[in-house]
C-alpha cells in the first residue's frame, strides 16, 4: 500500500469515526469494533511520524464487564500499555440484558498538532475532491 493511500484511508476513518470538535492538536477515534480500532492504529502508525508516548486510550464499559480483563483485551488490540489508559468510564447497567461479545467502546487519543492537522487536511481535501456538492 502506498504511503499516500494509507494516509487517505486513515484520514477517512478518522473523518467517519473521529471527533472533529476537539482542540487543534488532538486526534480522537472512537469505536467498539476491535478490527476497526486495530486498522486505524495500523494506518496511523505506518503512515505518519508518531510518538507512541502521545497515544492514550479511554474505554467505556458497562457495569457487568470485568474491568481488568477488558483493559487487558484493549491493550492487546491497540498495542498500547494499560499504563497509558485513562481511567475507564463505567456505564450503569439497566436491567438484566448483557451483550456477550461486546468488549466496550474505545477512544484512541493522539496528542500532536502536526499529525492532527495533516490528518484533518487530508480528510477535508478528499471530501472536497470526491464528496458530493452540498
Oligomeric nature of the chains:
single chain
Low-confidence stretches: none
- From the N-terminal CA to the C-terminal CA, the straight-line distance is 31 Å
CATH class: Alpha Beta
Number of discrete domains: 1
Assign the CATH architecture.
Answer: 2-Layer Sandwich
Number of helices, where a helix is a run of at least 4 consecutive DSSP H or I residues: 4
Radius of gyration, whole Å? 16 Å
Coarse morphology: globular
Order of helices and strands: HEHEHEEH
- Helix percent band: 40-55%
Output the CATH topology: 60s Ribosomal Protein L30, Chain: A
- What is the mean predicted local confidence, pLDDT? 89
How many β-strands, per DSSP?
Answer: 4
- Kindly report the spatial arrangement of strands forming the biggest sheet: 1-4-2-3
Largest sheet: 4 strands, mixed
Q: Structural class, please?
A: alpha+beta
How much of the sequence lies in strands comes to: 15-25%
Kindly summarize this structure in a few lines.
The protein is an alpha+beta fold.
Structure characterization notes:
The chain is of the alpha+beta class and 134 residues long. It has a single domain, classed as 60s Ribosomal Protein L30, Chain: A (2-Layer Sandwich). 44% of the residues lie in helices and 18% in strands. It has a four-stranded mixed β-sheet with strand order 1-4-2-3. α3 links the parallel β2 and β3. α1 crosses α2 and α1 crosses α4. The chain is globular. 23% of the residues are buried. The model has no long low-confidence stretch (mean pLDDT 89).
Amino acid at each position: 500500500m502506498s504511503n499516500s493511500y494509507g494516509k487517505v484511508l486513515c484520514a477517512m476513518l478518522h473523518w467517519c469515526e473521529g471527533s472533529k470538535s476537539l482542540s487543534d492538536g488532538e486526534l480522537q477515534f472512537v469505536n467498539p469494533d476491535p478490527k476497526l480500532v486495530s486498522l486505524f492504529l495500523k494506518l496511523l502508525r505506518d503512515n505518519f511520524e508518531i510518538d507512541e508516548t502521545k497515544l492514550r486510550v479511554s474505554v467505556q464499559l458497562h457495569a457487568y464487564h470485568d474491568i481488568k480483563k477488558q483493559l487487558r483485551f484493549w491493550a492487546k488490540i491497540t498495542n498500547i500499555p494499560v499504563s497509558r489508559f485513562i481511567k475507564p468510564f463505567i456505564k450503569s447497567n439497566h436491567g438484566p440484558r448483557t451483550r456477550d461479545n461486546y468488549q466496550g467502546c474505545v477512544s484512541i487519543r493522539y496528542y500532536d498538532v502536526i499529525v492532527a492537522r495533516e490528518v484533518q487536511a487530508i480528510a477535508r481535501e478528499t471530501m472536497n475532491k470526491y464528496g458530493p456538492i452540498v
